Amino acid sequence: MKSDPKIQVPDGLDLNAIPTHVAFIMDGNGRWAKKRLMNRVKGHEQGAQTVKEVVTACRELGIDVLTLYAFSTENWARPKEEVKALMYLLKRFLRNETEELREKDIRLNIMGQIERLPDDVRKEAEQAMAATEKNSAMILNLAISYGAREEITRAVQQIAAKIRSGALDDKDITDKTISDHLYTAGMPDPDLIIRTSAEFRLSNFLMWQAAYSELAFTPTLWPDFTRQEFYQILIDYQQRDRRFGKV
Ligand code: IPE
Ligand code: IPE
Ligand code: MG
Q1: Pocket of ligand 1, candidates 24, 25, 26, 29: which has the most ligand atoms within 8 Å of its Cβ, to mutate?
Q2: pLDDT tens digits, residue range 175-222?
Q3: Ligand 3 centroid to residue 92 C-alpha, Å
């Protein structure tokens, strides 16, 4: 998509070289709250504000796909109260933001084990996806109960079932076959993956799709992340030489 002509961006940012797919590992909500002697849940609440800001910024920039890591398969092992609060916030986000997503022509796609979500959250998620399915300006992938190992395992199971039924010949398996069975089927791989809060790992995020993604890390905690910092990261990204193994 083309970027919004009215958008105000810093001089160094080239609006004609905006990445197609940007992904975020939204980390640091708990530490943000702890610094303020608040409950971790307050950090997640504040983090939801950053989500709105980043979605708006990406839409204005004309980014085609935005993927946000909101809850990992490992995050289920957090204290019950925190998981409950996160599920509540997720439901509230889906309920309150669907209208705005519709207005902005953004299609919501939940990626992850949707069947593992509490019934009320799952229903809200399904409604939000259905309500935005015709939108085409941007895809917002929300990774919930998402883990790359689960995603790849699931793909292998689906491919194996197709071989067993005769729908697929094992000699025809290519890397595209694998890509086509991931939650991101049909979407381009992320050009840029940004992780906040000074952790330098993928934490089971998009391990297949990240093969040639550029990585950016910032010490900023997710609730403090701003669109200005995002622009700076994009400027830095635009200076990089993506060789894809070639010379
Ligand atoms: C990211 O913030 C949100 C989720 C993983 C759900 P954290 O809750 O991981 O915050 P820290 O890393 O403890 O600061
Ligand atoms: C990664 O953050 C998952 C999300 C941002 C949803 P974590 O806080 O769960 O990751 P680790 O435990 O620091 O690796
Ligand atoms: Mg964390």
Answers
A1: 29
A2: 999 999 999 999 999 999 999 999 999 999 999 999 999 999 999 999
A3: 21
- If one counts every other C-beta atom within 10 angstroms of the C-beta of residue 191, the result is 20
Q: Is residue 124 part of a domain?
A: yes
Domain-located, residue 209 = yes
Q: How far apart are CA 91 and CA 96, in angstroms?
A: 9
Tell me if 177 is assigned to some domain.
no
Task: Please tell me the predicted confidence (pLDDT) of residue 79.
Answer: 98
Could you identify the residue written with the tokens 């925190």? 82
Domains held by the chain: number: 1
- Please give the mean pLDDT across all residues of the chain: 98
Q: How many CB atoms lie within 10 A of CB 10?
A: 10
What is the DSSP secondary-structure string of 86-136?
HHHHHHHHHHHHHHHHHHTTEEEEEES-GGGS-HHHHHHHHHHHHHHTT--
- pLDDT of residue 139 exceeding 90, the answer is yes
Q: Are 235 and 10 in contact (CB under 8 A)?
A: yes
Type of residue at 196: T
Which residue reads 């917002």 in tokens? 140
The CA 207 to ligand 2 mean position distance, Å, reads 14
CATH of the domain at 122: 3.40.1180.10
Range of the structural domain that residue 45 is part of: 18-146+189-235
CA distance 92 to 56: 18
Check: CB of residue 48 under 8 Å from CB of residue 142.
no
